[in-house]
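Sanity check. The docking grid for 5-O-phosphono-beta-D-ribofuranosylamine depends on where the pocket ends up, so I'm generating a full predicted complex first rather than guessing from homology. Inputs follow.
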Amino acid sequence: MSLFNLAVLISGSGTNLQAVIDAVSDGRLPNTKIALVVSSRSGAYGIERAKKHGIANIVVDRSNVDKLPEILRFHNIKGIILAGYLTILPPDVVSAYEGKIINIHPALLPKFGGKGFYGIKVHQAVIESGDKQSGATAHIVDCGIDTGPTLVQGILSVQNKDTAESLQKKVLEVEHIVLVEAIRALVKGEIDILINNPKTIRMDKGDL
Ligand code: GRF
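Predicted complex below; grid placement will be based on this.
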């Protein structure tokens, strides 16, 4: 059986990429290969992670994003993981990979998502809102921003002492768990099962 080739699209430190690399190597993601890492920034540490694991890697930003479809075809990509990628995907990529593009967002969508909600801004908004829960959402990418159907959510409690920074740190660990769960369903062809019945994982009580 041929492996399910993933492209992981990043722009920063690549801890979500590392979580997927680790899950592939320790068997939690069978039949899966990270065939390509695409960064929207040349200085992203995630590129170093790819190099360390012998994974093909390339910088694709606004200036050459029109080349993305050809690059994905060349690497026989079957699924795309957005892990912080900061360039909007061309509509022809979204339609060519419909139902096979997963994004990881550091909040409980649909709250605190959409234009302008990325990075520390998300957690600042959660803290300012006074919400007592936050977490991470893995969802299918559609033509909107953070608007595709939810697949998996990891939920944790926001403590009174939490700051945007401390919340970001806790949520990032949840992202790693949630993302691997969603990718497992993608590789097994079970995305529709999750779309119809999204998985929720409680992450409190020392799970982290
Ligand atoms: C994560 O917070 C993710 O939710 C967001 O971008 C960040 C990527 O972090 N989409 P990393 O590069 O995977 O560490």
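Relevant for the grid: The domain at 103-208 is CATH 3.40.50.170 (Rossmann fold).
Also worth noting: The radius of gyration is 16 Å.
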